Amino acid sequence: MKLAARVSQVSPSLTLAIAAKAKAMKAEGIDVCSFSAGEPDFDTPAHIKAAAVKALDENKTKYGAASGEPKLREAIAHKLKIDNHLDYKAENVIVCNGGKHSLYNLIVALIDPGDEVIIPAPYWLSYPEMVILASGVPVIVHTDASTGYKITPEKLREAITPKTKLFVLNSPSNPTGMVYTPEEIKAIAEIIVEKDILVVSDEIYEKILYDGAEHLCIGSLGKEIFDRTIISNGFAKAYSMTGWRIGYLAGPTEIIKATITIQSHSTSNVCTFAQYGAIAALESSQDCVEEMRQAFAKRRQVMFDRLNAIPGLTCEKPDGAFYMFPDISKLGVKSLEFCDALLEKEQVAVIPGVAFGADDNIRLSYATDMATIEKGMDRLEKFVRSALGSSASRSRI
Description:
Keywords: Aminotransferase, Pyridoxal phosphate, Transferase. The protein is an alpha/beta fold.
């Protein structure tokens, strides 16, 4: 059977593959410490679940508008105005099957063959694959710890060509947890406007911030950048609703109309009664978000301290999200080999940095309980110390 050529050009998701392997090992009775999945370990808050149950009881189980339930689109527009200072109406919003799907809809709507999309690395692993599926060209701009794993205005300017159509901004970042400062956002916005390109701002982790870090939405800085901005967000991370698959895009009317057309011929509407849970998430108290954030903050400190106490590892302290991105280059081994051996020998699941365009790093999620973090760090330290104690560099792992 001959498959479409585009399939061979795209890599499967390493994060999902490793998370699935860890779950399979657990199902076999193996004690695995998993730091692989970007998924809060908390239950979805009770009032959100109750709203979905109420919607079921009221028989909200039929087809809905491909663009999303009108009340949810209005609630999202209101949230964006109050939280992010973006003057959107409901017609500027589409509800999608998760944040990932919102980005896919956008890429399909915008990118023609040969169009370039600038993506800073380390990047969320699906960004370049989506561009490739649309026959676009992902332009990867590498960053490192010296700039906090963030693109500089100079590097952004250098990467823009006449073929550039879109810049991908992710703050707080997956996989690094770094947050662009308001000054950095303003400098990027000036270049976007000057070069007359578009920017998609992936803000899925906007509510998960630490140590006074501030999330500034790039589209709020004036009409010129607002007109060139598309917002991608969702409910998975802040409200622990990963399995609900509710995300959204907000942006210029023409772009949103195009994504609605695409969605109408691909998935149609998002699960109807689940959207009522999302309405409750936005319109009810946000105390549940803060409770989870505080728990993440405590876990962050413990994992950060433990990682930096392990010889051979260095780790920047993240400002947001729930990931650590330590550098393993001093160990003389690349990320995939390291992660495979760590899972096999110590039953600790982490994600190789090569999936994010950074082969000298690994990603750990601290969206898990403290006991697992402590036990997993003990195992990781044992593994690394054993590697450092080996005499032959290539046989360390």
